């Protein structure tokens, strides 16, 4: 049932083109209007919400962070992302005008379920983004947008993460259409670009995997790895670090690259391994330039800089110990590609250390206690 792969995780990483394609399938009608499954919230109500709060835990919360950049940009609705267990116990301000988006692969995460219940008690409507039909969180929500990733067996989340991000984009695009399409042209481009993502992930797996396998072998004995990103690259950095902790039991931390000077740069020493996720140059020159200068800052202090950049971004080569190129796409969609080498890196490094990548120590696939 591993389909010839060495582990479920390996299989699930390779399932990602399909998982993304299936999550996109059948969502657009002939006029290009989005349709969501199980939408039991009145559209007039969705037009009047004044705040979105995304609640989730772990990897699902990083998908939520990506969602925030997209939803705020396309819909101009203030959007917060919060860990479900923090949200639940801090007396949050939510009401009938708040839309809660609860993201959960399993649909059984108790922290997220409790936060959903709490929000509904305050009158908020809840849309669940979930991978498991009929599980508790969708059952207790007002609407559901299913990710069609198929069963995810490995404890560490991979294909569910990419599918959650896709579902968040769909929700953002739907709300943007519903509330009057301010960025019509951009949204049309994004919808087109989304359709091209599965083939791009496939190309990445076909062409870049060996480079990442070699990289993992080279750094097998490393004790600590840092990940830097800005904008949507920030949650990608967090996710890269989480995968490495979970699978390889290596101390790993993700930072917003802009925070470097505010403290973390003190960690940089000769030979420190640092992944840097570089945003596309396309239309975001200043963001790109900022990250390039972050690479230089850590490089000057002796770091080994592993740069994830868009194909064609030759400028970064001179500052990088190694560059992993990913296919070009719209800025907001980049996490669907940039995450993949980080998943492969964590899996390969753990495998090189002789660890069980499907069932890491101390972890459960779904956390059903608070
Ligand atoms: O089933 P859920 O999406 O609600 O699970 C949330 C987290 O427990 C989960 O993403 C966890 O962080 C994974 N082990 C990440 O790989």
From TrEMBL:
- Provide a GO CC annotation, any one: cytosol
Q: Which reaction does it catalyse?
A: D-fructose 6-phosphate + L-glutamine = D-glucosamine 6-phosphate + L-glutamate
Cellular compartment(s): Cytoplasm
- Domain named SIS: which ranges? 41-181, 215-360
Catalytic residues as annotated in Swiss-Prot or TrEMBL: 365 (for fru-6p isomerization activity)
Any single GO molecular-function term of the entry would be: carbohydrate derivative binding
Which keywords accompany this UniProt record? Aminotransferase, Cytoplasm, Glutamine amidotransferase, Repeat, Transferase
GO BP, one annotated term? protein N-linked glycosylation
Q: What is its EC number?
A: 2.6.1.16
Q: Where would you say this protein principally sits, based on its record?
A: cytoplasm
User: So what does this one do?
Assistant: Catalyzes the first step in hexosamine metabolism, converting fructose-6P into glucosamine-6P using glutamine as a nitrogen source.
Q: How does it assemble?
A: Homodimer.
Protein name per UniProt: Glutamine--fructose-6-phosphate aminotransferase [isomerizing]
Which source organism? Brevibacterium rongguiense
